[in-house]
Each structure stands twice: as C-alpha cells, then as structure tokens.
Amino acid sequence: MNANDPKRKTRVTCAPSLASYLKEEVEALGFEVLSMDKTGVEIIASMEDCMMLNLRLRTAFHVLQRFADINCRNADELYSEAKRLPWDRVIDPAGFLSITSNVRNETITNSMFPNMRLKDAICDKLISASGKRPDSGSSTEGMVVHMHWVDNKARIYLNMTGRKLSDRGYRKMPFMAPMRETIAASVLMEMKYDGSKPLVVPMCGSGTIAIEAALIAKQRAPGLLRSNYACNNWLTSDKDAWTQQRADAKKLLAKKDPAPIIATDIEEDAIDASKKNAVTAGVDHLIDFHVCDFSETPMPSEVGDVVVHGEYGMRLGEDDDLVATYKRIGDFLKTDCAGWDGYVFTSGKPLIAAIRLKVARRTPFINAEIDCRLLRYELYKGTKVTEVLSN
Ligand SMILES: C[S@@+](CC[C@H](N)C(=O)[O-])C[C@H]1O[C@@H](n2cnc3c(N)ncnc32)[C@H](O)[C@@H]1O
What we know:
Structural class: alpha/beta
Number of helices: 12
Low-confidence stretches: 383-391
Largest sheet: 8 strands, mixed
Strand order of the largest sheet: 2-3-1-4-8-7-5-6
Bound molecules: S-adenosylmethionine
Mean pLDDT: 93
Strand content: 15-25%
Distance between the termini: 61 Å
C-alpha cells in the first residue's frame, strides 16, 4: 500500500436501477463491495483506485472518497464542525472549489445554504492556515466536495470524478429523447453483449446503444474519452499515477473488431448525429448506419441481438399514437428477426401488449424518471417449433 495514498471507504454512485450492474463491474475490477443500495455501492479504495474506476466504469456516476463524518444539527454547527477538518491537506488554494449536497435536515429550507456554509468553513480554515483560498462556484470542473447530510449526521466526501461519468464526452449531438450512456451500457450488460455476435439497433436516435456496444466490444475504457476528472485537482493528486492509469486503460483495447453493429433510424438528422457521435467516440468504423424505417433494417445473415428503443408515451407523444408502431415492431421481430434474441426498451402496458409476443424476461429500468422495462423475446425460427413438435 502507498503510504501517501491510503485506502479509504469510497462510495461509487449510479442512477436508480443500475446498482446491480455497477456492483458487477466493480467486483470484476477486483473490489469487494461492502454494501449496496439503490444508487450506489461502497468499497475501499485509494485515490489511484479511484482514477482507475473513473476510467473504466461504464455504469457509474461518481466516485466519492469519504473525507469525514460530522455531527451537526444546523448550519451553524455544520460550519463550526467542518472548519475543524484538515482541509489544508487536500484543497489546493490555487484551484477552483465547488460544493454539492443532498440534505435532509429540518432546519434547512434553502438547498443552497448548507453548500455556502460548508464552502465558507473550508475557505475560512484555509485563510487562517495560509492566507489563501480557492475561487469557488457551481462549475464541477475543479475540486468538488460532496456532502450527504441527514438529520444531525453529515458525511463529507471528496468527489474524485467531477462531472458525471455518464457524460462521456462523445455525445456532442443529442437527437430527441436520447438514452443516458450509463443506461445503454447497463442494457447491454443485461443482454450479455460482448461483440461476438451481430447487434442490430433500429430506431437508434443519437446512436448511444450502438456506440456503447462498440466501446464494450473493443473493451475500450469509456473514461479515456474525456480528460478532466476531479481526482487530478486535489492537492494530494498524483500526476504520475494518473499517467500510469491512462496507459494501463489504453492497453485493454481488444485487437479484434466486433461482429457487425448496424444502427438505423427513419430521421436523417438522427443518423447524422449518430455518425458524428460515433466519430467523436472513435468507433464510427465499427458501426454501419442507415436511414430507413425500422422494418427495412438490413439484417446480417448470422443471427445475434436486436434491440429497439422506440418512442413511448410520457416521453415523446401519446401512447395511442404509438400502438400501431409497436404492432409493427412485433411483426418485424417475428418475421425479420426469427432466430435472433430480441429486446425492446419501453414503458407502458398498452405498448408492451401491442407487440403481441411472449415476453421471456422483463428487467426494470428507470430512464429519465420514467419506469421502463427491457423486454426480452426469444424469436424462434418456425423450423425450430416444428422440430420441437416432431420430437
Ligand atoms: C427514443 S428515440 C431513440 C433514442 C436512442 N436510443 C438514443 O439513445 O439516442 C426513438 C427514435 O426512433 C426513431 N423512429 C421513430 N419512428 C421510426 C420508424 N418508423 N422507423 C425508424 N425509426 C423511427 C426516431 O427518429 C427516434 O430517433
């Protein structure tokens, strides 16, 4: 263990409904998960471990290293207790500081007030120690201190990520109702996608599922797509460790290209956005894009997975208008995708019923605060049914 980089309790956060995928990823990287709840897992990690997590996790939001627990009943006590902490060891007075928080305390009615008091405590402490304090504001591009304060207990974390990890940096061109990158990665994990079989994504929108698939298939660390992480902005940051972690992450890249990935959408603008996003992500050569109705999607001869994230009620129109489309999706899966594993990501019973196929598995997801399901369909070929019947 590096004495200058001690291991500490660390919380890795994610969107609601993704914690089991995050746990799987964190364990695959060799960490023991001490606890898990709806929006994250707890592990023990050094700052260098946090760098690795930032670079490699596909389903996480933030990596938060625990700094201190304090008892405080109100904002004055928060200020006085927080001022006692050794901020001069971690805060770079030449850097930029922001505070984020979740607060549930009956004395707090203005959500910005505790952030301001915590920022004052940190800056006053630094001024008394060295006469210098960092600039501060709402941008999360510098050092980010996060506080989770419930009743009279506040837990203070050093945020090692900054901007959410779901903001990979490749989606410069969102088309309507894009799926968040971390949800797309979790959907692909649920499908056990590894690039060995073809993947078809009709109704691809801004291309998120296809791009995440290409990143997974190439074992490309998604965090390499952006450069600014809060772990590099603390006084205790280690530039050499970061360079090493980036070099190690680059070595993961698979030499072999995946089986075909095909992404289509009826809107030319969507395919334009998808192509640009895929170029930014460095995976455009791995995805075949077409403008067409989903039912005209060119299917590879070898079978694989097909995943449809169409429009649904609360998000983009009224369910009634969409029932006919979902009937056509059902027909497309049955006739054009026989022998494939079919997946539909959607919300609402009328749309699911309109597909008129037997659901083999339903996995709940929350996307943009809407309860959704990933539905799995086993799309047997007609001949397979005959074979089963004749046995
Ligand atoms: C919910 S969005 C997909 C979002 C996508 N997963 C993403 O992350 O950006 C649904 C997409 O279906 C497309 N679409 C709607 N009707 C279609 C049709 N009949 N054929 C093909 N695409 C269609 C829309 O243009 C839209 O881009």
